[in-house]
Each structure stands twice: as C-alpha cells, then as structure tokens.
Design a protein that fits this description.
The protein is an alpha/beta fold and 247 residues long.
C-alpha cells in the first residue's frame, strides 16, 4: 500500500487490505474467508500470522469454533447455554442454532445480555446445560469461587468449555498478590489485567470444585497441514468440564 495506505481513512483502507491479502494459504473457519496470511495481533510479544483480516478471529476462537463444529453432539437437543464474556463472532455461532436457549453475561461488557459476576451467579442451581467461557478466569482473583459457581448452575451431565491461557510446561500456577501495578502485572503475567499464569495444575483446580475434566490436544490431533492452515496454536488444548450425571 505504500504511503497511500497510511493516509486513507480506515473504512477505505481495510477493504483494500483485505483484497491485498486474499489467497489460499490460511483459512478462517469462523468467516469462511481465505488469505495468503493472517494479520499480526497482540502487543508484547506481537504474534505474527494470528488475526483473521475479515472477522478478527484469533487462534483461540478458531480452535473452539472447529472443536464445536467437529463435536456436534455437544450442541444437540434443547440446550440452555450461558456464554461468559461474549465474543461477537461466537455469539453468532451459538445464535444460529435454534435449539439453544442462549444467554450471554459479563460484569462490564455492553455486548452481554445480562450483567453477572462470575463469582456470584445469581441464578438457580442446575439452570444451564452448558457454559462457554474463554480467557476469563485468569482475570478473576477468586477463580475457584468462579469455578464453583459455574459447577453449581450446571445441570447434572452438563458441560463447560473453560479456556484460559495455560503454560502446560509449568507444573504450578504462578500467583503473587503483592503485584498490583499494571505494568508489573504485564511483565509477570503477560497482560496488565491478568492476576496469574496457569500451569498444568489448572486441571486440578477445576477438579477441586467437582468437575470431571478432560484435556484434549485438539490442535495437535488435526492433520498438521490443517492446524497450520487454520492458524492454530498447537500448545492450546481444549479443556472441557462435565458435571457428573446423577446415578
């Protein structure tokens, strides 16, 4: 685009950049568009080839989208689903399923249908069949309380996809409550509003509130060429939790 791209208004420049980057190397399952490359995202470090130029999906969004598409039984039948911190493109995914009784919730986001504190979900026991929560728990100081509340409002046999940034090579979650300065939190936790870095004991935390937890290496189980084409993070595993069915 040269210097012209720097002076064009955004509403003109973005379509031109989309046309520039169309190709068949990368494919976004969320919007169906293909590109010669994805755009970089993040601040420090910047992740190259990460964000879909069309719908702005990131690797974590494409991962769960593909997982749900390839596991249709999860969304079969009449389902009461709670979507925490709703992402617009995933809202569209759920709302296109007419069998889903959908509720989105967040403490601050204007995109949410209801304002809900995840550590104090003021809903009856067993009132949802599924919960979808991506990159939220790492922001919550009392994450076990949030996990316990999600367990409480799920029906027996219900499931929750609870994705968080996890360093699976780290045996224990790193927390330090003396770190309150945003710049220091950024340095230690990777983001100024994160309060921890989860280690492989993330699964144990979830089990401690009663969940049956399955860690699925979904990105690594796909054919290597597909994982690369979809721009997935091979270290990001699906974490699906279930409430035991009553005997």
């Amino acid at each position: 685009m040269g210097n012209i791209g720097n002076v064009l208004p955004r509403w003109v420049k973005r379509p031109l950049l989309l046309l520039r980057d169309r190709g068949d190397v990368m494919h976004c399952p969320c919007c169906g568009w293909s590109f010669r490359q994805f755009w970089p995202s993040g601040v420090s470090p910047v992740e190259p080839n990460s964000m879909c130029p069309k719908c702005s999906s990131l690797p974590r969004h494409r991962l769960v989208w593909l997982f749900l598409e390839r596991n249709p039984k999860l969304l079969k039948g009449r389902i009461r689903l709670l979507h925490i911190a709703p992402e617009p493109l995933l809202q569209k995914f759920f709302k296109r399923h007419l069998n889903i009784d959908y509720l989105s919730a967040d403490l601050f986001s204007p995109l949410a249908m209801e304002r809900i504190d995840l550590t104090d979900i003021r809903k009856p026991d067993s009132c949802f069949d599924a919960i979808f929560c991506v990159h939220v728990l790492e922001h919550i100081p009392d994450d076990r309380k949030a996990m316990s509340e999600m367990y409480r409002v799920l029906s027996p046999g219900g499931w929750a996809i609870l994705q968080s940034p996890v360093d699976w090579n780290r045996p224990a979650t790193f927390e330090d409550w003396s770190i309150t300065d945003p710049a220091e939190r950024f340095r230690h936790f990777g983001q100024k509003d994160h309060v921890r870095i989860y280690g492989s004991d993330y699964v144990d935390r979830l089990r401690s509130v009663g969940f049956e937890v399955e860690r699925i290496a979904f990105a690594r189980e796909l054919e290597a060429n597909l994982s690369a084409k979809f721009g997935l993070d091979l270290s990001d595993d699906i974490v699906i939790c279930r409430v035991p069915s009553k005997v």
